[in-house]
Design goal:
Elements (H helix, E strand, L loop, with lengths): L25 H7 L6 E5 L4 E2 L4 H11 L4 E5 L18 E4 L6 H5 L25 H12 L5 E3 L1 H5 L5 E3 L4 E3 L2 H5 L3 E3 L4 H12 L13 E6 L9 E4 L39 H12 L2 E4 L3 H6 L1 H13 L8 E6 L2 E5 L8 H8 L6 E2 L9 H6 L2 E3 L1 E2 L10 H5 L4 E2 L2 H14 L6 E2 L1 E3 L13 H6 L19 H11 L6 E2 L7 H4 L3 H10 L4 E7 L3 H7 L4 H17 L5 E8 L6 H13 L8 E2 L7 H8 L21 H11 L7 H10 L32 E6 L2 E4 L28
Parallel strand pairs: 1-3, 1-4, 4-5, 5-8, 10-11, 11-12, 15-19, 18-20, 21-22, 22-23
Antiparallel strand pairs: 2-14, 6-7, 8-9, 9-13, 12-13, 16-17, 24-25
């Protein structure tokens, strides 16, 4: 039985009470009567005291348990001086890059530097270093040697083992040896963080804390928690073991008074199923899987893809085993994922006394991320979609953790009564997805045993409860609160789930859509969809029909705004052309399009790096190949198909269509994709640059990237010959 989150005994410093804001200076500490902080949290974001910002949530949680928590926000990382601002913590430094991965935050999918940072006052760029967790942890160590350093957040979670790094185009080590941190907490950190803090406060050394779920650390090559632990090579998991002959049920020795038991043997006992399952689970809890080591995954794509597959299969808290991976002379050890929070635990976290405002030291500075979420409410965590390009499931898990309706309503009332500038409109009731609230497996036993990577792909699991009634009830109660004019839903909608509840779609369309609803089919073609683990367009069409009918019934003209991804692994030029034709047919002209961005640890990133499909067995010579688009100019061509209506893309698309044998799509009528004419001043590109080489293969073109000046074009494998294995949150 997992203890309640707030069952720990409070620390002695609880006598100081609740701080108006967690202190960011010595002067604030003095005003609170503190001579030191127990914990100092270092973050790459501006400090906003709101539960949507990780450091505020973690800080208030620790404060509620009686610890004195200080914040160092966006410090100057060029020296250790800024990390001494609040003095030496009595327990540890907690380090995070912020709500976003620092590399995703700073660079586009084309590796270009972004001009702003939404989590910084005035949106100013360059206020955090690349790979901020590593840099901050090293500076904390430099500032106060010997003080424990604990790292966490999405950046640390997604780098907990050896991983492909898109920005350097290399396989990098786990963040643990690079940061020199004592402990890494991955996933939802509340349980692990409170237990670690309590044990450190009691005098236990951090090097001895090795048994907490959701934590990772460095150990010697031979280290094990106990002698009775078993180690299994991951390479044995994808191959069949020895096959034992079935026991003949008719040959069992009687066990009654007349039993004739051969000398030296024991009578056969039929073991009940519950006992067998318990024994099996006990073995799993004492088993560690050894992944291929860092050097192997760095140099061998098959081993990298295999390691990625094993890690994702060991992600269910109900059956996951510990993992270890050698990095030189030491191992990274990862305990199983944390147990999800219960609804009372979630309520306790979100009911803490947040001021719901930026720290006063920022004055009147506008912080874009704060402006975006200040009137929104997070109702749940996790996602069971398992989209291969997304980081949500890998970080928060696929088991949905929901707040109670009363807790959500209480927060809406707090926004109404206490948040300056509130006009009566709640901008969002959601989370990673809009409509997975309170959805779960119908059987706790099945849920604990399940090893599927998605509950909704290739089809919605029969064991999944898809009831939208609790969400509908919350929507109706929220929109009828006094002082609330409108409750909008801005989180991404899982339309394949929504079609299971026409009543939900009707409620959504009639009361919670502001004219436009964003959804994410991501693609129209089966090949890329199979690699994304996304549903086919049939679900989109059904949802569109219900959406339009519900809008018409109340006399509203409302529109769906679909999102699509270009250059995702498994996508061919033919796929992108078909998607462009679909957009043309439905008269969509997309302003914002997304090119695939390989984020650490994602399954789609594994496909991008290794050109292998980790959704299937990789080793043993039976792995499925996945051809990918890596060259920048070919990526831009994929993106150009999404913006077929942009005149800047027409020269590139004309050449591509000619080489694909689709000149019939070039012309000036409505049936054509792009016109023959070119508006003056548009579509310019460097002289001599080419998109495709005219080298036909069995009537089809061989595709090559645009050539740089003075360099011959390279000719990769023909993209139209990619294997198509049939199939969001964003990174």
């Amino acid at each position: 039985m997992t203890p309640a989150l707030f069952s720990h005994r409070k620390h002695w410093a609880a006598r100081f009470g609740t701080a108006p804001f967690l202190p960011m200076s010595r002067a604030e500490m003095t005003a609170l009567g503190w001579d030191a902080c127990d914990i100092i949290l270092v973050t790459g974001d501006a400090y906003i005291d709101h539960p949507s910002f990780g450091m505020a949530l973690v800080g208030r949680l620790l404060e509620a348990q009686g610890y004195r928590v200080g914040i160092i926000s966006q410090p100057d990382w060029l020296s250790a001086d800024a990390f001494r601002t609040l003095g030496q913590p009595t327990l540890y430094f907690g380090v995070t890059a912020g709500n976003m991965d620092s590399m995703v935050n700073r660079y586009t999918s084309d590796r270009k530097t972004r001009s702003d940072d939404a989590y910084t006052p005035h949106g100013a760029p360059n206020k955090r270093p690349d790979r901020a967790v590593t840099v901050y942890a090293q500076r904390c160590r430099e500032a106060y040697p010997g003080t424990p350093v604990i790292i966490g957040s999405i950046e640390a979670s997604l780098r907990r083992i050896a991983h492909y790094d898109y920005w350097s185009d290399t396989v990098r080590r786990s963040v643990l040896p690079d940061s020199k941190a004592d402990l890494l907490i991955f996933g939802n950190a509340e349980r692990a963080l409170l237990e670690v803090t309590q044990r450190l406060a009691k005098g236990e050394k951090i090097a001895d804390i090795r048994d907490i779920r959701g934590t990772g650390f460095m150990v010697g090559r031979e280290w094990k928690p106990a002698d009775n632990w078993l180690e299994v090579l991951s390479t044995e998991l994808d191959t069949p073991g020895a096959i034992d002959a079935h026991v003949d049920p008719y040959a069992m020795t009687p066990s009654g008074p007349t039993a004739q038991t051969p000398e030296g043997t024991a009578p056969i006992r039929i073991v009940p199923k519950a006992e067998r399952l318990a024994a099996k689970q006990d073995v799993r809890e004492r088993t560690v899987i050894r992944l291929p080591d860092y050097d192997q995954v760095k140099n061998n794509p098959s081993f990298y893809a295999h390691a990625s597959r094993v890690l994702h299969l060991e992600s269910n808290p109900g059956n996951a085993r510990a993992l270890r991976q050698a990095h030189g002379e030491r191992d990274v050890w990862l305990n199983p994922p944390p147990i999800p929070l219960s609804t009372p635990d979630m309520d306790g976290v979100y009911d803490l006394p947040y001021t719901r405002a930026p720290h006063p030291s920022y004055g009147d500075a506008k912080i874009p991320a704060w402006e975006m979420i200040r009137f929104s409410v997070n109702i749940m965590r996790g996602c069971f979609g398992g989209c291969t390009f997304c980081s949500i499931t890998e970080h928060e898990g696929r088991i949905i953790q929901s707040r109670s309706e009363d807790s959500v309503i209480k927060e809406i009332e707090a926004i109404r009564d206490k948040t300056p500038g509130f006009t009566g409109v709640i901008s969002d009731l959601g989370g990673p997805t809009a409509n997975m609230y309170r959805m779960a497996c119908k059987s706790e036993t099945i849920e604990k045993a399940c090893r599927r990577l998605s509950c909704v792909f290739p089809d919605i699991c029969d064991n999944l409860n898809t009831d939208h009634a609790p969400l509908i009830s919350m929507y109706r109660r929220a929109r009828t609160l006094p002082g609330i004019k409108k409750v909008l839903i801005s989180s991404g909608l899982r339309y394949d789930l929504a079609v299971r509840s026409p009543e939900y779609i009707k409620e959504l369309v009639q009361h919670h859509v502001g004219g436009y609803l964003k959804i994410a089919p991501e693609h129209t073609e089966a090949g890329p969809l199979s690699k994304m683990m996304k549903p086919g367009m049939g679900a989109y069409d059904r949802f569109k029909t219900l959406f339009e009918a519900a809008s018409k019934s109340v006399g509203k003209k409302q529109y769906l705004i679909p999102y699509f991804i270009a250059a995702h692994p498994g996508t061919t030029l033919e796929d992108m052309l078909n998607l462009a034709l679909w957009l043309k047919k439905h008269d969509f002209r997309l302003d914002q399009v997304q090119t695939f961005l390989p984020t650490p640890m994602a399954l789609a990133t594994t496909m991008y790096h290794t050109e292998k499909n980790p959704l299937k067995k990789v080793l043993g010579g039976k792995g499925e190949s996945v051809e990918v688009v890596k060259q920048g100019r070919m990526r831009r061509l994929h993106k150009a198909f999404l913006r077929y209506h942009d005149a800047e893309n027409w020269p590139m698309l004309r050449e591509a269509l000619k080489e694909m044998g689709r000149e019939d799509l070039i012309g000036n009528s409505k049936k054509h994709l792009i016109p023959l004419f070119q508006p003056a001043g548009t579509g310019k590109r460097p002289e001599g640059a080419r998109i495709l080489r005219d080298v036909p293969v069995k009537g089809e073109p061989r595709v090559a990237p645009l050539a740089s000046r003075g360099r011959p074009p390279q000719v990769p494998k023909h993209p139209l010959s990619q294997r198509r294995g049939g199939g969001k949150s964003r990174p």
